[in-house]
Design brief:
It is a single chain. By secondary structure, the protein is α/β, with parallel strands linked by helices. The protein has two domains: about 130 residues, Aspartate Aminotransferase, domain 1; about 240 residues, 3-Layer(aba) Sandwich (Aspartate Aminotransferase, domain 2), CATH 3.40.640. It contains 13 helices and twelve strands. Helix 1 runs antiparallel to helix 9 and helix 3 packs parallel to helix 9. The longest helix is centred in the last third of the chain and has 39 residues. The radius of gyration is 21 Å and the shape is globular.
Length: about 375
């Protein structure tokens, strides 16, 4: 059976060109970047080349890029690092109700230690109101953290407008761009971003490597201590093969971004139209247009998402019911509840996320089998 993979928001396959770029750093160019000999210098030069590639893609300086183990560490470093650096100069953080758990859980951690967290609501389409960000700012606000695009519903936030509110009060602004880096154009200066979290495995790079952009002059403390790597902000021997792969993945993504997004937008609009037209009592979750072109999140009344996913899996189609980081959690999606969906509607929601190699034929196969799966489940459901 040829499998159809529609869960690219969870992870993407590593590009073969990325794998080829990484291979020599496992067996031939294996030096420690901190070593002073030529093997170390060779590895260090490759790390710095990748750092420059990421910096160029974000419109920042190479020395403002810090490599981490992934998006979760980058988010934790941004939030906790700013909090620890505040040194009693303030203890209030503003975020949104629909952030990834890699932001929400560090906020809960800080809240238990005396920090105050404002979690802003979103409207029915999943958008944060910049005016509410401004209203939430108070004396002692040390950070605003709003994601670029949501990992479940794909809605793109008004980052520039929010950044303007932060800049008016000289408050650092952090953006979780794990879902958008390599898929949407990002320029940290033009967008007014002070800290930005990214991850390689969301853009056809390897798992286990990410980065945090920190604007020069931003006061931030380290979470890991033990060495002087990453200019003292992130102790630990650099993951050279993965960092090299990350850089290569960014180069490939930048080259094909425009054509890829055009292709995905066409498939997305076809999916949305056909699902809503052919499956009664279905609804699109999130803004209809202001969303990532790869994302379709829909709810089907009277069925559970897990049952639909099992039916799809039997047909060779992989999708998800929300964030991959909450798989196994029985509670409905906090993102969908924040949109105003009932618990039952949230429990019947699926996320389809396409990738650069998704074909129209694959989408046609999904659209052929999905209505029948939903209809069969509704026929035996006491909820419908």
């Amino acid at each position: 059976m040829n499998r159809i993979y529609l869960d690219h928001a969870a992870t993407t396959p590593t590009d073969p060109l990325v794998v080829e770029a990484m291979k020599p750093f496992f067996t031939e160019m294996y030096g420690n970047p901190s070593s002073v000999h030529s093997c170390g210098s060779e590895a260090r030069a490759s790390v710095e080349e990748a750092r420059s590639i990421l910096a160029d893609s974000l419109g920042c300086r190479a020395e403002e890029i810090y490599f981490t183990s992934g998006g979760t560490e980058s988010d934790n470093l941004a939030l906790k690092g700013i909090a620890w650096a505040s040194n009693s100069g303030g203890n209030h953080i503003i975020t949104s109700a629909v952030e990834h758990h890699a932001v929400l859980e560090p906020c809960e951690f800080l809240e238990k230690r005396g920090f105050h967290i404002t979690r802003l609501p979103v409207d029915a389409e999943g958008l944060v109101d910049p005016a509410e960000v401004k209203s939430a700012i108070r004396a002692g606000t040390i950070l605003i953290s709003i994601m670029h695009a949501n990992n479940e519903i794909g809605v793109i936030q008004p980052i520039k407008e929010i950044a303007e509110r932060a800049r008016e009060k000289n408050i650092p602004f952090h953006v979780d761009a794990v879902q958008t880096f390599g898929h949407l154009a990002i320029n940290v200066d033009e967008m007014g971003i002070d800290l930005l979290s990214v991850s390689a495995h969301k853009l056809y790079g390897p798992k286990g490597v990410g980065a945090l952009y920190v604007r020069r002059g931003t006061r931030i403390e380290s979470l890991l201590h033990g060495g002087s790597q990453e200019k003292g902000l992130r102790a630990s021997t650099e993951n050279v093969p993965s960092i090299v792969g990350f850089g290569r993945a960014v180069e490939i993504a930048a080259r094909g971004m425009g054509d890829e997004n055009s292709h995905l937008r066409t498939l997305q609009q076809k999916m949305i139209r056909c699902i809503l037209d052919n499956i009664p009592r279905s609804r699109l979750n999130g803004h209809a247009n202001n969303r990532l072109p790869s994302n379709v999140n829909v709810s089907f009344q009277g069925v559970s998402a897990e049952a639909v996913l099992l039916g799809l899996d039997l047909e060779g189609i992989a999708a998800s019911s929300g964030s991959a980081c909450t798989t196994g959690v029985l509670e409905p999606s906090h993102v969908l509840l924040a949109l105003g969906l009932s618990k039952k509607s949230a429990e019947g929601s699926l996320r389809f996320t396409m990738g650069r190699n998704t074909t129209e034929a694959e989408i046609d196969t999904l659209l052929d089998v999905l209505p029948g799966i939903v209809e069969r489940l509704r026929s035996v459901s006491p909820l419908y």
